[in-house]
Amino acid sequence: MPDSILYALTSLNEGTPLSLIEAMANEKTVISTAVGGTIDLLGRVEQEFDDFQICERGLLAASNDAEGFFNGLIYLANDEKLRKKLGANGQSFVQMQYGKARLVNDIQNLYRELKEN
Question: Are 69 and 10 in contact, with CB atoms under 8 Å apart?
């Protein structure tokens, strides 16, 4: 993944895909089918096209829509500024939501709650 500029996930069904989180952590621009947890990971829709959506942290295309997915890929390939913005947004999100600091804080809070009860 280090030399890639995009990460594409074409799943028909997903929970919360670790591969997508890893790509975002590495500041890769992501495009995914809109299934399961991918929708939450990519965030709020900022712009809609006929066959794909630009979200806060990546692009979404409908499941089973190969043409829409392809059009999203082409759109990203032609817009370096957008790729950089989405990659940076994704990396920030993963650091905040899945980073070590968050894990340590969550564990500390859990122990405090258990101690109080």
Answer: yes
Domains, the chain, with CATH or none: 6-91 (3.40.50.2000)
Give the Å distances, CA to CA, from 58 to 9, 23, 35.
Answer: 11, 11, 14
Q: pLDDT truncated to tens, each residue of the chain (117 aa)?
A: 556 789 999 999 999 999 999 999 999 999 999 999 999 999 999 999 999 999 999 999 999 999 999 999 999 999 999 999 999 999 999 999 988 887 788 788 888 888 887
On the 0-12 / 13-18 / 19+ scale of CB atoms within 10 A, 78 is exposed
User: Distance between CA 6 and CA 22 in Å, rounded?
Assistant: 12
**Under 8 Å between Cβ of 14 and 27:** no
